[in-house]
C-alpha cells in the first residue's frame, strides 16, 4: 500500500524514536510504506535536519547493502543547559532539606517528564562511548537507570543490599559508607554482568561517594570496565570523597542548624564534563 509522505514522516520518526541506536535498513522502510529507497532517503534527510535544528537527536545514515538509519536521542548544549536550569529551580526549595544534609528528591524522580529529561541528559554524556550495561543500586536509582538504559538501548542491572533467592548465585563486596563510615555490603547476580563489559554507574544522590565506590569495586570483581559515573544530585561533603570523576547534574548545599535551614541548588559538573570536553576537541 502506497503511503503519503506526511504519513511516512510521522511513522518513521515514531519508529526510530521507539528503537533508539538501532540500525534500521532502508529496505525495511521501503517495504513498510511501499516506497522507493530514494524517497525513503529524502524522508530521512528531512527528519535529520529537523532533529538537528531542534537539538534533540542525531540521525545517522550508513550506505551499502547492510546500511540503514540509526537515531540517537540526545540534547544539544542549549537544551541541556535549559533542562538543568529547570532542575535547579525545582530542587532549590528549603522544604526539601532532610536530617543529615540529605535532600528529598522522590517526588521529582517519580515524575515521568523529569525522568525522561534526566535519562536523556545522562545518555547524552555517553552516546559516543562503548557502553554495554547501565548499573545502579536499589532503590531510588532504579528509575534513573531505566530511563538512561532506554535512551542508550542497553540493559540495566540493579545492585542490591541483600540477595534475593530469585537472583541465583551472587558476587558481594563490603564497602565503607562515605558519610556514616559504616561497613556495608552490596551484591549482584553473577548472571547480570559479563567479564569485560563496559559499565556506566548512575545514582540519585552522592555525598561521600561510598555507594559509588562500592559499585566500582563490584565492577572490578566481575572483571568489567567502568566507563563513567553520573548522579542526579551532588551534596556537600566536608571530608575526602571516596570516588573521583563523578559527574553531577546539580549540586546542592544545605545548612541545617537550630537557627537556619536552607538549601542552595546550582548546576553541577555536567555541562563542563560533557560540552566542555567537546569544545576542546
TrEMBL record:
<dbReference type="InterPro" id="IPR036390">
    <property type="entry name" value="WH_DNA-bd_sf"/>
</dbReference>
<keyword id="KW-0238">DNA-binding</keyword>
<keyword id="KW-0805">Transcription regulation</keyword>
<dbReference type="GO" id="GO:0003677">
    <property type="term" value="F:DNA binding"/>
</dbReference>
<comment type="similarity">
    <text>Belongs to the purine/pyrimidine phosphoribosyltransferase family. PurR subfamily.</text>
</comment>
<comment type="subunit">
    <text>Homodimer.</text>
</comment>
<dbReference type="InterPro" id="IPR050118">
    <property type="entry name" value="Pur/Pyrimidine_PRTase"/>
</dbReference>
<feature type="domain" description="Bacterial purine repressor N-terminal">
    <location>
        <begin position="4"/>
        <end position="70"/>
    </location>
</feature>
<dbReference type="GO" id="GO:0045892">
    <property type="term" value="P:negative regulation of DNA-templated transcription"/>
</dbReference>
<dbReference type="InterPro" id="IPR000836">
    <property type="entry name" value="PRTase_dom"/>
</dbReference>
<protein>
    <submittedName>
        <fullName>Pur operon repressor</fullName>
    </submittedName>
</protein>
<dbReference type="Pfam" id="PF09182">
    <property type="entry name" value="PuR_N"/>
</dbReference>
<keyword id="KW-0804">Transcription</keyword>
<dbReference type="InterPro" id="IPR015265">
    <property type="entry name" value="PuR_N"/>
</dbReference>
<feature type="domain" description="Phosphoribosyltransferase">
    <location>
        <begin position="111"/>
        <end position="256"/>
    </location>
</feature>
<dbReference type="InterPro" id="IPR029057">
    <property type="entry name" value="PRTase-like"/>
</dbReference>
<dbReference type="InterPro" id="IPR036388">
    <property type="entry name" value="WH-like_DNA-bd_sf"/>
</dbReference>
<dbReference type="Pfam" id="PF00156">
    <property type="entry name" value="Pribosyltran"/>
</dbReference>
<dbReference type="GO" id="GO:0045982">
    <property type="term" value="P:negative regulation of purine nucleobase metabolic process"/>
</dbReference>
<dbReference type="InterPro" id="IPR010078">
    <property type="entry name" value="PurR_Bsub"/>
</dbReference>
Amino acid at each position: 500500500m502506497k503511503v503519503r509522505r506526511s504519513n511516512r514522516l510521522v511513522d518513521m520518526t515514531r519508529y526510530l524514536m521507539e528503537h533508539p541506536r538501532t540500525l534500521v535498513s532502508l529496505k525495511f522502510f521501503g517495504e513498510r510504506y511501499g516506497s522507493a529507497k530514494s524517497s525513503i532517503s529524502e524522508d530521512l534527510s528531512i527528519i535529520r535536519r529537523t532533529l538537528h535544528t531542534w537539538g534533540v537527536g542525531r540521525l545517522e545514515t550508513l550506505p551499502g547493502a547492510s546500511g540503514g538509519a540509526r537515531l540517537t536521542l540526545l540534547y544539544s548544549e542549549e537544551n541541556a543547559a535549559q533542562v538543568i536550569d529547570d532542575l535547579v529551580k525545582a530542587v532549590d526549595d528549603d522544604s526539601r532539606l532532610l536530617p543529615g544534609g540529605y535532600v528529598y528528591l522522590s517526588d521529582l524522580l517519580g515524575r515521568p517528564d523529569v525522568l525522561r529529561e534526566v535519562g536523556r541528559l545522562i545518555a547524552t554524556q555517553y552516546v559516543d562511548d562503548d557502553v554495554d550495561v547501565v548499573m545502579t543500586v536499589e532503590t531510588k536509582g532504579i528509575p534513573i537507570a531505566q530511563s538512561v538504559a532506554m535512551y542508550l538501548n542497553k540493559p540495566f542491572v540493579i545492585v542490591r543490599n541483600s540477595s534475593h533467592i530469585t537472583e541465583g548465585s551472587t558476587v558481594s563486596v563490603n564497602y565503607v559508607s562515605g558519610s556514616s563510615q559504616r561497613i556495608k555490603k552490596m551484591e549482584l547476580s553473577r548472571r547480570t554482568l559479563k567479564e569485560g563489559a563496559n559499565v556506566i554507574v548512575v545514582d540519585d544522590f552522592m555525598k561521600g561517594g561510598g555507594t559509588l565506590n562500592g559499585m566500582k569495586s563490584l565492577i572490578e570483581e566481575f572483571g568489567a570496565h567502568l566507563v563513567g559515573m553520573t548522579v542526579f544530585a551532588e551534596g556537600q561533603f566536608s571530608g575526602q570523597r571516596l570516588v573521583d570523576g563523578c559527574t553531577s547534574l546539580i549540586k546542592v548545599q544545605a545548612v541545617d542548624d537550630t537557627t537556619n535551614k536552607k538549601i542552595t541548588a546550582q548546576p553541577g559538573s555536567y555541562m563542563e564534563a560533557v560540552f566542555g570536553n567537546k569544545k576542546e576537541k
